[in-house]
Amino acid sequence: RGIEALALCAFSSENWGRPEEEVSGLMKLFVGALEREIDEMDRRGVRVCFIGERDRFGDAIRARMDAAEAQ
Known about the structure:
Layout: H1 20-43, H2 59-70
Helix pairs in contact: 1-2
């Protein structure tokens, strides 16, 4: 479709100030979407690159982000 690059803001630093239940729910949505979509994005030649600080994310989420980038 001619799109060379697309940047999406999925979770800004301000979101860490939300109630813990909301942050947890957002993390579940993020991981779920990533797991559902990464293979299709790969088939379509989409390169995934996460930018920003990752240190506040849990180990499992960071590992999934790393795997998506490697794929």
